[in-house]
Every structure is written in C-alpha cells, then in structure tokens.
Automatic annotation (TrEMBL):
One of its GO terms (molecular function) is DNA-binding transcription factor activity. This is TetR family transcriptional regulator. Keywords: DNA-binding, Transcription, Transcription regulation. Residues 22-81 form the HTH tetR-type domain. It comes from Cryobacterium arcticum. Residues 44-63 bind DNA. The keyword Oxidoreductase does not apply.
C-alpha cells in the first residue's frame, strides 16, 4: 500500500524553513510596496517575483492573486487615511478652513507618495471589503468637512464634495508626470486648488 507523505504540523516545521518562508514573504512585500508606489497597480506578480529575487511560484503561494497582495499592502494605509479624515472632520467644528485645507494637502501628499494608493483611491470597487469600508469612512468624513466649510462661508458658491474627487483625479495625473518631483508638484497643485476654492 502506498502511503501519502506526512503533513508536518506548524510546530514541527524546521525553524530554518519557517525563517526562510518569513524572509521570502518580507522580500515580496517590500519589493511590491516599492514597485506599486512608483508604477501603480499595473505591476504584475511576475514583476514582483523578479524584483524580490524569488520564484513566481513562491509569490503565488503567499499571495494567490494580485488583489490579495494589494489588500495586504493597502488595507492598513486606507484605514490610516480614513482616521486622518475623521480627525479633520472633528477639527472642522472649531476651525473649518484649517481642517479642509489640511485634508486637501494630506490627500494630494498621500497620492504623491504612492501611485498605487492613488489608483485605489480613485477606483476602490475592486478592493477588499475592509478597504472599501475604510474608503466609505473617509468619504463621509470629507463630506462633513465640506459642509462645515460651506456653512462658515469659506468656499465659493457652487463648490460640492464632487470637486474633491476631481482634485483626486487631476492630482493623479500630476503625480504620474512629475516623477521625482511628485511631492512638491502635488503640494503646489493642492495649494492652487485651495486658492481657487476659497471664497476669501
């Protein structure tokens, strides 16, 4: 009778093998983070494997799909983004223009740091439920920011929350074309937009 190979329980896996697997995963995540930040979400798992110095099969064992890798990288980042938006919504009760301005500059700054995150901010529909929930939190908070600034008479007539989405789309193009100057170019763009939106 032919027996099947025994399956090792996690506690019986040799420490060297566990350490090697952990190093591979760390290499994959680090390589992916750098590639996605500079090139956006079009980077393939094959590209990630090459950059990480591991086989494609190793990447697929850790992350069966590209979306699984993106979720690992960006769910936490989206949560932090939502938390910042909520903090600014709270600040808007006492200082609506400062809160609105800081949110806009934070938005364009985060886009400049990571082109893939900018991609996902603009099109969150294909992301994980957790990412989408954090995205909804950020939208609700930014809507509150806009209402507070409008009620204080600080925004031009006709301004709506959809104009923030236009900023996101437009700044994505700025980031794509600015290269190493993306951070400075995005901040400059954000400040120009604040001047344009202000009623003062």
């Amino acid at each position: 009778m032919t027996g099947s190979a025994p399956t090792l329980a996690p506690s019986t896996i040799p420490p060297a093998l566990r350490a090697d697997a952990a190093r591979n995963r760390e290499s994959i995540v680090c390589a992916a983070a750098k590639a996605y930040a500079s090139r956006g979400t079009d980077v393939s798992l094959e590209d990630v494997a090459h950059l990480a110095g591991v086989g494609v099969g190793t990447v697929y064992r850790r992350f069966p799909t590209k979306q699984a890798l993106l979720d690992t990288l960006f769910e936490g980042k989206m949560s932090e983004f939502a938390e910042h938006a909520e903090q600014m919504a709270a600040l808007a009760c006492s200082d609506p223009w400062r809160a609105f301005s800081e949110h806009v500059l934070f938005l364009v700054g985060e886009q400049a740091k990571d082109l893939a995150f900018s991609d996902l901010l603009r099109d969150p529909e294909a992301t994980s439920p957790a990412f989408q929930e954090h995205h909804r939190r950020s939208i609700a908070a930014s809507q509150a920011l806009v209402r507070a600034a409008q009620q204080a008479g600080l925004l031009r007539d006709g301004f709506s929350h959809s104009d923030l989405l236009l900023i996101t789309d437009a700044n994505h193009g700025v980031v794509q074309h600015a290269g190493q100057d993306a951070a400075a170019a995005s901040e400059r763009f954000g400040r120009y937009m604040l001047q344009a939106f202000s009623s003062r």
